Amino acid sequence: MSTHVQKPGWFTVNIFNRAVAWLTRRGISIWGSRVLAVRGRKSGTWRTTPVNLLTVDGRQYLVAPRGHVQWTHNMRAAGGGELRLGANVDTFTATEVADDDKPPLLRAYLKRWKAEVGAFFKGVGPNSSDEELRRIAPDHPIFEVTYTNAPAPTGTADARSTNDATAAGATTATKATNAVNDVNDVNDVKDLKN
């Protein structure tokens, strides 16, 4: 397994990720953004970070453009987590995608978000050959998302599932979680640990 990791710079940590996480927690998705929550593999506490949710052929995926970062290690240990958009919280299980199956997913991801994350893919872009995409595949974990609390969303990357709780409004627990998340903006932007 590759150990490729590209740590975020100051601007990404202190400005960009904070802004995206803040908007996403308020229900505003930026090009499919969600706040990923996954339990720490050692601490067991919830760790959060903004992510781009990729939809390909009605299936949804989380791609790690920076490589084998902390959330990917935590995802392997936990086997799933939560994707949050405003008051909507979708629980899911995650299945890691094999390297040989990654090229079409990497191509779709780069078509949508190359301007944001292209620098992390070693010069490979959406128009690169399958061979080039296969070469970088081990450096970029991808997890297929299977929802456990609602049917899987269909349509664009901005589509999300709805259920009675969402339609009726956020629960008290969700409101409390969102309030805690507002206080803990720093947790949304630091490279996840444990």
From TrEMBL:
Protein name: Nitroreductase family deazaflavin-dependent oxidoreductase
Stretches of the chain forming a coiled coil according to its record: none
InterPro entries xrefs: F420H2_quin_Rdtase, Split_barrel_FMN-bd
Pfam family, one: F420H2_quin_red
Gene3D superfamilies: Electron Transport, Fmn-binding Protein, Chain A
One GO MF term: oxidoreductase activity
